[in-house]
Amino acid sequence: MISNVNKTVTDITKYVVSSLNENNMDINEFSVQKIIYQIKMDLNNKRSLYNQLPYYWYYYGPYSELVHDSFNNINFNENINHDEITLKYPEIINLVQDLLDKGNYVYHDLGRDIYKKYAPFDVLYPFKYKIFNVTQYDAFSCDGDEFVNAFRYCQPRFSLNHFHHDFSCVFSKLAMRIDMLNDNNLIEDCWDILRLPIRNLWFTFAESLRVKIHDEYYDNQSEKWNNIFLNSLKQSNQEIDNMINKTNPLIDFSIYGEYDDFDKNLLNSTLGSYLGDD
Amino acid sequence: MDSIENHFLDTNILIGHVLLNNSKEICKNYMDLKSSKIVSDNVVHESYNIIHKLENISLSILNYISNYISLNNVSDEKISSTMKLIEKNFLKEYEYDEYPFGFTQKKFNKISRNLFLKYRDIIKICIFYHNLARIP
Fold first, then answer.
1. pLDDT of A149-197, one tens digit each?
2. How much is the average pLDDT of B114-125?
3. In this structure, what DSSP letter does residue B36 have?
4. A148-163 as b/e: b if 16+ CB within 10 A
5. What is the overall mean pLDDT for chain A?
6. Beta bridge partners of A121
């Protein structure tokens, strides 16, 4: 059965690549992965491909190793003829045509739409597009308050998923520090120190994601993935600790002043009840 | 070392990290000591984790409340009963979780109940103003 699926996936991949080629569009693996994921979701439960093509969520969105293998097996030197490929599901022709008609949509907004529609948790979209994407540039190109708000929006949402407790602690450590740096107007100056830990934290999150959110096909790999995730969590934690030590002397702690009643209540009810007798 | 003494040290570090100004300096200086330090780094990390977990709990509660009042219309007369309902529903979400936010059920319930209790007035005022802003 697997070989059957392999053939179907190879055909689809070939078809998508040749269509991209025909329209003189850039061919890269990530957009092919996304186009095929969109096709899978459009085909819906009606077709068996929906259940047979296994995906998991990873660094740059949904990712399938089958698609990866068949993309690498394509020989780009020889011309792939459009008509020679016989697709198992003929409606794919229309679906691909619809996507490619929109031009650059495939490279920019398709990923965005997939994250909005199909992401397993609602924290994924803001984490990827409001935090991770900002770190792709050498200079800080975002409003400081907006950046902090994105962190504060994501922070409580991790723990709702029941398996991110350790990760959410590391994340809130980072969020607290970003908040402090923003109070001191230091984010732009410290961007070189901040960029890498934030980027790596997103990659760590993506690794934790594929441990739990993957199709049945990958079940036997989840233990291996879990070890990879734990290792990179350790590393991320170390990186953030280093970043905190580096930024410590820059921050002016005296601007925080005394606690008001609101803060005292918070301390009383959280720390007090943690330390108090049962 | 005795477990009671250990707990006492934990408490000091926890509070030292949270307190501002002078006490923060004292705590920081103590942490920078290379020798003659009784507390291991593990204890420090654990204390940090507790602070962040507590922060996460309070943020999730506030988040839950803001979600609730933006989705449901809460009339001014029913604010008190709604508060009770929100508390009950929030705790229910974690009922079958063995370690919610990394705490035991009992401790988690205690912390969140305390938070709801201490914030009752402030949350009531928030809902009231939210209703005022809705009037066209």
1. 999 989 888 766 556 778 888 999 999 899 999 999 999 999 999 999 9
2. 88
3. S
4. bebbebbbbbbbbbee
5. 86
6. none
Rounded Cα gap, residues B61 and B46, in angstroms: 23
Q: What is the pLDDT of residue B86?
A: 92
Residues contacting A21, CB < 8 A, separation 6+: A27, A80
- Output B136 or B126, whichever has higher pLDDT: B126
For A214, phi then psi, to 5°, come to -150, 160
DSSP A58-104: ETTEEE-HHHHHHHHH--SSSPPPTTT---SSTHHHHHHHHHHHTGG
Residues of A with CB under 8 A from a CB of B: 152, 155-160, 162, 165-166, 168-169, 172-173, 176, 253-254, 256-259, 262, 265-276, 278
Q: Is the ipTM of this complex over 0.90?
A: no
Residue among B11, B52, B58 whose CB faces A169 most closely: B52
User: Is the Cβ–Cβ distance between B61 and A157 less than 8 Å?
Assistant: no
The residue in chain B having the minimum alpha-carbon distance to the alpha carbon of residue A267 is: B18
Calpha distance B101→A163 (Å, rounded): 9
Nearest chain B Cα distance for residue A259, angstroms? 8
Q: Which of B33, B29, B2, B35 is nearest to B16 (CA)?
A: B29
pLDDT digits (tens, 9 = 90+) for A249-278: 888 877 877 778 888 888 888 888 887 765
pTM: 0.83
- Tell which wins on pLDDT, A130 or B103: A130
3-class secondary structure, A163: coil
The 8-class DSSP code of residue A214 comes to B
- For Cα atoms A138, A140, A142, give the angle at the middle one, nearest 5 degrees: 140
